[in-house]
Amino acid sequence: MGALDPSLFTVITKTLTRQPRKGNLYWYHPWTCVKQIGREGWVNAVGLTNPGIEWWCRKHGPTAGAQGIPIIVSITADTVPELVKMGRMVVGSASHIVGIEFNPSCPNTESSARMTENAGLVIEQTLALKEAIGEMPLLIKLSVVQNAERILQGVQGCVEAVQINSVPWHVAFPNKQSPLHRLGGGGVSGKVAQQHTWRFIERLVKASTIPVIGCSVWEYEGDCRRVGDSA
C-alpha cells in the first residue's frame, strides 16, 4: 500500500538447519505450538521447523534481497563442519544477502540445550563460521540463560551485532506450567519478557563493545526509550 518503505527494515529469515526439520509447526494449525499470553506477549515452541538450507539456497537464494529489502539469513547446526558448510552455501547462493545470523540459543530443541550450556562450543562455532564466510557480516543470537559475557569476550572482533532470543518459559514463569508444556514449555516474547530481556541488554552492553539489537518493544512510547536507557 506504500505506507512503509521496506528498504528501511532488515528481514531476518526463520532459522535454517542443515537438513529439513519437522519441528512442531503445522501451517494448517499453527496454534498447536503458539499461544498468546494475555494481551502482552506470546509463547512459542515452533522447534526450528524449516525446509533445510539446501532448499532455501535453491529456491530463494538467487533472488533474496534483489528487490532492495535487506535480508539476513539465520542458521544453526549441531557441529562445526556442518555450520561452516551452511555458511559457505549462503554466501555462494545469495549475492544480495547483507549478513548471516548464527542462532545457538533456540529454547525449543534438544540439540540447542547443549550449546546453551557450553559457551566454549558457541565460541568455537562462531569463529569457524566467521572464517568460512569472510567479509560477510555476522550476527549472533543469544539467550538470557547463556554465559553471554564469556561468549562475547571470545567472539569480539568477528561479530557485528548481538540479537536476543525469546526467554525460556521456565525463566519467565518459574512457578507456572506453560500452555505448551507437552512441547517443552517454549520461549516467551513481547512485553512479558521485558524484565528479563532488558536486564540482558544491560549485561551485553557491559560485556563488550559489540552493538546490541534492542528487543521486546511492545509499545512505541516508553519501550523504545527504556531500551535506549538500558543500552
Unreliable segments (pLDDT under 50, ≥5 consecutive)? Answer: none
Number of helices, where a helix is a run of at least 4 consecutive DSSP H or I residues: 8
What structural class do the secondary elements suggest? Answer: alpha/beta
Distance between the termini: 34 Å
Average of the residue pLDDT scores: 91
In total, the number of domains comes to 1
CATH domain class name: Alpha Beta
Number of strands: 9
**Order of secondary-structure elements:** EEEHEHEHHEHEEHEHH
Biggest beta sheet summary = 5 strands, parallel
Strand order of the largest sheet: 1-4-5-6-7
CATH architecture: Alpha-Beta Barrel
- Might you state the CATH topology name? TIM Barrel
| Percent strand | 5-15%
**Which shape, going by the Cα principal axes?**
globular
How large, in whole angstroms, is the Cα Rg?
17 Å
Q: What's the assembly state of these chains? A: single chain
CATH superfamily grouping: Aldolase class I
* Portion of residues within helices: 25-40%
